[in-house]
Specification:
single chain; alpha+beta; about 30% helix; globular
Length: about 230
């Protein structure tokens, strides 16, 4: 039984990595076409409206319909939950999040206007909805080292953002973190801006404070310790 369980876990890890490889291909297609990365939320009147996954589906895979189910196909890690935990168990659990803010922690001064990730810059007067601001995309040239910047990674809390410091700060009380640590035999899958996939440990991604770990979050390839 132990051998079967390990084989299943390995198959799920491979399936997840394959999902991210496909997302990486779509991301490269989007960048080639637009010379920019999907913004976190594109304004309704922009060429690429919607959340990052909608933009990736339309601009990267040529799918005209919005993504209505983020818990199926390439959008779902085989070992991730289908739904959020109660009382939000009617909400889909998002397996993969977008590196919107980079290394900046939520609430860090300037992170709303100068995010270090791929969120994009706020466009005054242009929104996605009355409650959500819209953002202009990050240009291809603004990512200093695409092969060393994470674009999309496994979401441990079911959200559509892939953040370093909010996961670290919530780790001790986050049921999803504890479950995710055993998801892929102590590894997690991440796709980089150049489309390649790696499987580092969650501790390296979220906790390591070395320059080598920190620069992977930020598009200027700097550690930005002032955000820690």
């Amino acid at each position: 039984m132990l051998g079967i369980s390990r084989s299943k876990t390995k198959a799920q890890q491979i399936g997840c990595a394959n999902n991210l490889r496909q997302l990486g291909i779509g991301l490269q297609s989007f960048v080639t076409e637009n010379h920019a990365y999907p913004s976190f939320i594109g304004p309704t009147n922009s060429e690429n409206p919607g959340f990052w996954f909608d933009q990736l589906a339309s601009g990267g895979f040529g799918i005209s319909k919005p993504v209505t189910n983020i818990a199926e196909g390439i959008w779902r890690c085989p070992s991730a939950p289908l739904k959020m935990a109660p009382p939000n168990d009617d909400v889909d659990f998002c397996s993969y999040g977008y590196n919107a803010y980079g290394g900046a922690r939520p609430g860090w001064p300037g992170n709303y206007d100068n995010a270090l990730g791929l969120r994009g810059s706020f466009v005054p007067g242009h929104t996605f909805s009355p409650r959500l601001r819209g953002f202009a995309p990050v240009n291809e040239s603004e990512v200093a080292v695409p092969a060393d910047m994470m674009a999309i990674g496994e979401s441990f809390n079911g959200g559509i953002r892939f953040d370093r410091l909010n996961r670290l700060n919530q780790r001790s009380s986050d049921r999803y973190w504890r479950a995710a640590l055993t998801r892929h035999q102590g590894k997690m899958n991440v796709v980089f801006c150049d489309g390649h996939v790696e499987s580092p440990t969650p501790q390296f991604v979220f906790e390591d404070s070395s320059d080598a770990a920190l620069v992977r979050w930020n598009r200027d390839h700097q550690p930005h310790r002032d955000t820690l």
